[in-house]
Amino acid sequence: MKQIDFVFRTILAELAQRVTAAPSSAFDVEGRFVPVAVKGRQYWYFDHRCAGGGKVRKYVGPDDDETTQTVAQFRALKDDARARRKMVRMLTREADLPAPDPLAGKIIRSLAEAGLFRRDCVLIERHAYACFTACLGMQLPQALWERTQTGICLCLHAAADIATVRDVLRSTDRSFAATSFSAARQGDVRFANDDGFWIELAAPTLLGAYLVEEPAKAVMLYNCGIEVTVPRPERYAIHELMMSARADADDGILVREYFRKRALVMMQALLCVGRQADLAEAFEAAWSRNDSWKELIERGMTLIDDMHLRSRILEGLTQGMQDIGHDPAHVH
């Protein structure tokens, strides 16, 4: 694990600023305005692709001051989107930073445009983890997932958002439909298409609520950059540590190992970038919740079989506790 080159970290920071500052628009930046002359007068139309792949032309208005201003603003947005797209290409190709596959990226972008990440929707699991590389400025190993873990996972708090997700999916691929799955908990919802690609909407649980409490904004490296909401890296680290201890025989040794490895990667990355205080706060928030969680944390620590690595993590947590003014006596 190593830090991302300073040049690319600078580009990441600029991209994040530009994505956050980009104003919303009623017009897709991948479309274009077209002037059309009719009986000596000029009118503006907007060409864009529909969900099915065909082209659609929409009337905008006559060539007056208001429409001219709209066209000029759109061109500025399009220029900015083009520059951001160039940054994303540089970061994924030259810096080798993780990006979603095309279908996942397209769906997540559509969810963002539908406003889900401005509400209480949080991206979790695989695609959230991929965003942590940019959040921490560290190259994180990406092959830490089960082969079946290829879909998109979201944590929703409002039942009404399920309908929004369904509509977004159907606009992307009409074959998406609700489906059952073996690992479902009460309240979990999954949609899948005919090719087996799925998106899971996880019902809130106590551990899940801890994970997504006070989430963070991040930029996903797809197209011209997508602003998404993800768990805080320190919460993610402690959550995975507890999940590694919680995994039972039915889950399998491999599942536990995946949780353990992700916890280790995240804790090491946080300590490498000097965020031991953040890690300690997340540790303390879980430790003080109840006795069951204390047992999960203690058991998760014992599953770190590399004694040198465990010692380094405990030393970092101890320092973090001191940094936030807490007694580190229970860090062991």
Provide a concise account of the structure shown.
It comes from Phyllobacterium sophorae. The protein is of the alpha+beta class. The protein is 49% helix and 17% strand.
Task: Please give a handful of descriptors for the protein shown.
332 residues; alpha+beta; five-stranded mixed sheet; elongated; Nucleotidyltransferase-like domain-containing protein; NTP_transf_8_dom
Shape: elongated
The unreliable regions are none
Biggest beta sheet summary: 5 strands, mixed
Please state how the strands of the largest beta sheet are arranged side by side: 5-7-10-9-8
Structural class category: alpha+beta
Kindly report the average pLDDT value: 90
Let me know the number of strands.
12
What is the ordering of alpha helices and beta strands?
EHEEEHHEHEEHEEEHEEHHHHH
N-to-C span: 25 Å
Using only C-alpha atoms, the radius of gyration works out to 23 Å
Note the beta-strand portion. Answer: 15-25%
Helical proportion, percent range:
40-55%
Count of DSSP H/I helices: 11
Pfam families: NTP_transf_8
Protein name: Nucleotidyltransferase-like domain-containing protein
InterPro entries: NTP_transf_8_dom (IPR058575)
Domain Nucleotidyltransferase-like: 104-204
Question: Mind explaining what this structure looks like?
Answer:
This is Nucleotidyltransferase-like domain-containing protein. Pfam families: NTP_transf_8. InterPro entries: NTP_transf_8_dom (IPR058575). Residues 104-204 form the Nucleotidyltransferase-like domain. It is a single chain. The protein is an alpha+beta fold and 332 residues long. Among the domains are: 2-93, no CATH class; 232-332. 49% of the residues lie in helices and 17% in strands. The protein has helices at residues 6-21, 65-93, 102-113, 125-136, 160-172, 206-212, 233-246, 253-272, 276-287, 291-302, 307-323; strands spanning 2-3, 32-38, 41-49, 55-62, 122-124, 138-139, 152-155, 177-179, 189-192, 198-202, 216-220, 226-230. The strands form 4 sheets. Strands 5-7-10-9-8 form a 5-stranded mixed beta sheet. The protein has a 3-stranded antiparallel beta sheet with strand order 2-3-4, with no helix packed on it. A two-stranded antiparallel ribbon has the order 1-6. Strand 2 and strand 3 form a beta hairpin. The chain is elongated, with a radius of gyration of 23 Å.
